[in-house]
Write a structure and sequence with these properties.
The protein is mostly beta strands and 794 residues long. Helix content is 12%, strand content 42%. The protein folds into five domains: 192 residues, no CATH class; 92 residues, no CATH class; 97 residues, Immunoglobulins (Immunoglobulin-like), CATH 2.60.40.10; 86 residues, Immunoglobulin-like, CATH 2.60.40.10; 158 residues, no CATH class. It is built from eight helices and 51 strands. Strand 8 and strand 9 form a beta hairpin. The radius of gyration is 48 Å and the shape is elongated.
C-alpha cells in the first residue's frame, strides 16, 4: 500500500524551483534545493538496504510521490516521509511549508517531537516554544490519521490553491511543519523532524474494544487480519489463544510487562518477515491448525495430556559453542530483550527430540501444546515435551494414527535458572555413581539416669528421600573445638544414639553408601547444644486445690525429668495478676516423687515450680486460685493492721514510701525483722484460726539493669525478656511467725517463743506476730505494702 501524491509533489517542485531563481544566495532554499536534488538522485540510484528484518521510515527523512505506508505498533521513535513542500514569502521565500507522513493509519498520539536532536515543546496553536531559539520560527500541527480529519486551513491559505480542502490525507498520520528562514536558527539547513509515536489502535477480542496497546498478541492479531498483512478473517483467528497470549504478555516481570511490541515496518515488507519479527517480541509461536490461526507467547503451560510410547532421538551438543545474532526489531526494553534471549537460549538447551506415531489419543493435541511423555526405558516419567509438528493419516496396516514431533521443554525454560539444569533433566535414570542424599530429620537431646547417675544422650534420626537406593549409612560426631570425628554407628536408615556425652556443643554428620559401594557426600548438621543437667526441668503442667476443713490439698502431674529434685510452692494474696517474685514461699521443698502436699488454707493464688538437682527451676509456673468465699467462715473476725506506718519494732528494716523493706542490702544474703506494733486479744482462752495477709513485691535498687543480675547467666530463671523485670525471681521471701499467751496480755503475760506459720489453728487468748524479710541478692529486698494479721473464731 503506497501514498500517491504525484500532482502535489510536481507542484511543489515547480514552486521551489521558481523560489530559488528569485532569491539565489540568500534564501532559505539555497541549501534545501541542493539537498533535495541530490537526495532524489541518490535515492533513485541506490538499492534499498537490507537490515535483516522489517523496518520503517529512516529517522533522517525520506521523500517521494508514491511511497509505502509505515505501520507503527506500540511506541517507537520513527522518521517521516516528505509528501509535500512549498515556499511562500515573496521573492525571498521566507517560509517553507512541509507535509511529513508518519503512518498509514490512525495513531494514538505524538509523545515526543524532535528537530534534529532537540526535543521541542509546542503550544496549543502549534508554535514551538522550546528550545527558545525556535520560538517564532517553527510551527508544527499534528494530524492523527483519522477518517474525518480536515485539510489544514493554514496551509490552504498559504499554498495559493496548490493545497485545497480536498487534501485531507485521510487515514494518514502526518505533521504540517512551517519553518521561517533564519541562518542562525538553522545553521545546518532544514532540520530533520522525527517523533516518538504511540501507534496503531488494535482490537482486543477479550473486551471487544479497540484501543492503543503494545501487547504483542494484540498487535500480531491486528497485523494478520489487516489488508496490508494476511487479511485473515476474524472467524479464522482462534481468539482464545490470542487472549491467553495477551495475558502472558501482560504479566509483570522485573517491574515491567513480560513482553511488549514496539516497532515499525513498511507495507512493502513481506508478511513472513513481519510476522517473524513481531513474534520475537514475545518469544512466541504462530501457526495454522484445524482451520484456525493460533498463537502462543513464551511461557510454560502445565501439560494436560500424557503420551506413552517408544524411542526418541537425542541430539547432544557435544560441547560445541555457537554464537547467534538474535535480532529483536519489535522490542524496545533491554530487560525484555534479555528475557526473550534467555528463553531462546533455554529452548536451545532442551534438545531432546522425539518423532513418533501415536493412536487417536494424540488427535486432541496440536502444535504448541505441551504434553507429558512416559517411557521407562529412557527414564521419562511425566517429562514435558512441546508439540512442534502434527500429522494425521493411515498406517501401512490402514490404522488411524497421529504422527508427532516433540521437543523437550520445561518450566525452567521461561525462568532464570542455572544452565546446568538442562543437562540434568534429560532422564530420571540414575547414574552409576549416583548416591542419594541423606540427612538428619531430627536431632534430640535427652538426659537419662542409671542408678542415680545422670548422662546425656543424643538421638539422631537419619532419613533419605530415596531410601531404596541406600545400602547403608555412616554416622559420626565431633565435639566443638576437636579435630577428629568419632564414629557413632554404621547401618540402616533410622535412629542412632550417641554414647554418654558431656555438656557442650557437638556436630554430627552422615553419608550414604550405594549398593555399588560408592560413598556419597557428607551431610553435616549445625551446632547442637547438649545441656544435660544444665537444662531447666519441664514446667509443672497444672496445679489443683481441694479444700478440707482448714487445709488445702495441692496436687499436680509429676515432672518426668530424671534430674528432678523437688517442687517449691509460693503464695500471694493477688488473685488477678500473680507474680512469682511478688509472693512468699509457702512450702520450700516437696521432694520427688511426691506430687501433692496438704497445707493450711489461705485465700489467694498458689504457684508451683519444679527444681532440678542443680537448683535450676522450670521456666514457667503453674497456679491455682483459692477465693476467700471458698474458705470456712467464722462469727468473730479480729485483725491487726500495721501497714502503711509499720510502727512496731524494726531490726534492719525501715519504711520507705509506705513499704517495709530491708534497710541494708549491700551484701548477700541479707535479712531484717519486724515485730507487730501490738497484739490481738480474744478475751478468753480459745481455739482460733490465725493467718497473716501480705502484699509483697520485689524491690530492686538497681532499677532492673541487666548488669545488676547476679549468679551464672545460665541459672537465671524465666524468659530472657523478663530477666530484669523481676517477675520470675524467687531471691526474696517473707517468713511469718506467731507467738501465743494464755494470760491477760495487758498484765504480765508469759508468751511462747515465735514459731513459723502460714495459717493454722491455735489455742490461746492473745496472739502477737513477727515477719522476717529475706534477700539473696545485693540491692534487692522484699517490699511489704500491706500487713494484716487476722484471728477468727466461733
Amino acid at each position: 500500500m503506497a501514498v500517491a501524491l504525484p500532482a502535489l509533489l510536481s507542484t511543489a517542485s515547480v514552486a521551489l524551483t521558481t523560489g530559488v531563481a528569485g532569491a539565489i544566495g540568500g534564501s532559505f532554499f539555497t541549501h534545501f534545493l541542493v539537498t533535495t536534488a541530490m537526495g532524489a538522485a541518490l535515492n533513485a540510484l541506490s538499492p534499498k538496504p537490507s537490515s535483516g528484518g522489517s523496518g520503517g521510515y529512516s529517522l533522517t527523512g525520506q521523500s517521494g510521490s508514491a511511497v509505502d505506508h509505515q505501520i507503527i505498533y506500540g511506541k517507537t521513535k520513527v522518521g517521516g516521509v516528505r509528501l509535500y513542500d512549498t515556499s511562500t514569502g515573496g521573492e525571498t521565500n521566507t517560509f517553507l511549508h512541509r507535509i511529513l507522513a508518519y503512518a498509514g493509519h490512525e495513531i494514538e498520539s505524538y509523545e515526543e517531537i524532535y528537530l534534529n536532536d532537540d526535543l521541542v515543546t509546542i503550544d496549543g496553536s502549534g508554535n514551538v516554544t522550546l528550545p527558545a531559539r525556535y520560538s517564532g520560527y517553527v510551527t508544527i500541527k499534528k494530524y492523527y490519521g483519522t477518517t474525518t480529519q480536515a485539510a489544514d486551513t493554514g496551509l490552504i491559505a498559504d499554498a495559493g490553491g496548490a493545497w485545497t480542502s480536498l487534501h485531507k490525507l485521510s487515514n494518514i498520520a502526518y505533521l504540517y511543519v512551517k519553518l521561517k528562514y533564519n541562518s542562525d536558527v538553522f545553521p545546518n539547513g532544514i532540520p530533520v523532524v522525527s517523533c516518538v509515536i504511540k501507534g496503531k489502535k488494535v482490537y482486543d477480542p477479550e473486551t471487544a474494544t479497540t484501543a492503543w496497546s503494545d501487547n504483542p498478541a494484540l498487535c500480531l492479531r491486528d497485523y494478520v487480519s489487516s489488508a496490508y498483512g494476511l487479511s485473515i478473517p476474524d472467524a479464522r483467528i482462534y481468539d482464545s489463544s490470542v487472549i491467553t497470549a495477551k495475558g502472558i504478555c501482560n504479566q509483570t516481570v522485573e517491574s515491567e510487562a513480560r513482553y511488549s511490541c514496539n516497532g515499525s515496518f513498511l507495507t512493502s515488507s513481506s508478511p513472513k518477515q513481519v510476522i517473524s519479527d513481531m513474534l520475537t517480541s514475545m518469544g512466541g509461536l504462530f501457526w495454522y491448525s484445524q482451520g484456525s490461526w493460533k498463537m502462543k507467547a513464551a511461557a510454560y503451560t502445565t501439560p494436560t495430556v500424557t503420551l506413552v510410547d517408544d524411542p526418541a532421538f537425542i541430539t547432544a551438543d557435544n560441547n560445541l559453542v555457537n554464537t547467534v545474532d538474535f535480532s529483536l526489531p519489535f522490542t524496545a526494553s533491554s530487560k525484555t530483550a534479555q528475557r526473550i534471549a534467555r528463553v531462546f537460549l533455554n529452548r536451545n538447551r532442551e534438545q531432546l527430540t522425539v518423532s513418533a506415531t501415536f493412536g487417536l489419543k494424540a488427535f486432541q493435541v496440536e502444535v504448541g501444546d505441551i504434553v507429558y511423555l512416559n517411557n521407562t526405558r529412557f527414564g521419562w516419567s511425566s517429562k514435558p515435551f512441546e508439540v512442534t509438528t502434527w500429522d494425521f493419516g493411515l498406517s501401512d496396516g490402514l490404522d488411524l494414527q497421529t504422527s508427532l514431533t516433540l521437543r523437550e521443554i520445561s518450566p525452567e525454560v521461561f525462568t532464570n535458572v542455572d544452565g546446568a539444569f538442562f543437562e540434568n533433566n534429560n532422564s530420571s535414570l540414575p547414574s552409576a555413581f549416583y548416591v542419594p542424599a541423606v540427612s538428619f530429620s531430627s536431632i534430640e537431646t535427652e538426659l537419662r539416669s542409671n542408678f542415680e547417675s545422670l548422662f546425656n544422650v543424643v538421638k539422631l534420626t537419619v532419613s533419605s528421600s530415596d531410601p531404596s537406593s541406600v545400602e547403608r549409612v555412616e554416622v559420626q560426631m565431633q565435639e566443638d573445638g576437636a579435630t577428629n570425628w568419632v564414629a557413632v554407628g554404621v547401618g540402616d536408615l533410622g535412629i542412632y544414639e550417641t554414647p554418654a556425652l558431656n555438656d557442650g556443643f557437638y556436630y554430627f554428620r552422615v553419608r550414604a553408601y550405594s549398593f555399588l559401594g560408592v560413598k556419597g557426600d557428607w551431610f553435616q548438621s549445625g551446632s547442637t547444644q547438649v545441656l544435660g543437667q544444665a537444662a531447666p526441668p519441664q514446667n509443672v503442667s497444672s496445679l489443683s486445690a481441694n479444700l478440707s476443713g482448714g487445709n488445702v490439698n495441692l496436687a499436680w502431674p509429676p515432672v518426668t525429668d530424671p534430674d528432678l529434685s523437688f517442687y517449691r510452692i509460693r503464695h500471694t494474696t493477688d488473685e488477678s495478676a500473680p507474680s512469682w517474685s511478688n509472693a512468699v514461699t509457702y512450702v520450700d521443698k516437696v521432694s520427688r516423687p511426691a506430687s501433692s502436699v496438704s497445707v493450711p488454707a489461705k485465700s489467694g493464688t498458689y504457684m508451683i515450680r519444679a527444681y532440678d538437682k542443680l537448683g535450676t527451676n522450670s521456666p514457667q509456673l503453674s497456679s491455682v486460685v483459692v477465693p476467700a468465699n471458698a474458705l470456712e467462715t467464722f462469727t468473730n473476725n479480729l485483725s491487726l493492721t500495721d501497714s502503711p506506718t509499720f510502727t512496731g519494732t524494726k531490726t534492719n528494716t525501715s519504711v520507705v514510701s509506705s513499704n517495709l523493706r530491708i534497710t541494708t542490702t549491700t551484701s548477700a544474703p541479707s535479712s531484717g525483722t519486724y515485730l507487730s506494733s501490738t497484739y490481738i486479744d480474744t478475751a478468753a482462752v480459745r481455739r482460733v484460726r490465725a493467718y497473716i495477709d501480705l502484699a509483697v513485691s520485689r524491690f530492686d535498687s538497681g532499677s532492673g539493669l541487666f548488669d545488676s543480675l547476679t549468679g551464672p547467666f545460665d541459672t537465671l530463671s524465666g524468659l530472657f525478656d523478663d530477666l530484669t523485670g523481676g517477675g520470675n525471681f524467687d531471691d526474696t521471701d517473707v517468713v511469718t511467725y506467731i507467738s501465743i499467751t494464755n494470760d491477760n496480755p495487758a498484765g504480765t503475760p508469759t508468751w511462747s517463743s515465735y514459731q513459723i506459720f502460714q495459717a493454722g489453728d491455735f489455742y490461746g487468748r492473745a496472739f502477737r506476730f513477727k515477719v522476717e524479710l529475706k534477700s539473696e541478692s545485693v540491692g534487692v529486698s522484699p517490699s511489704i505494702s500491706s500487713l494484716i494479721a487476722k484471728i477468727k473464731y466461733n
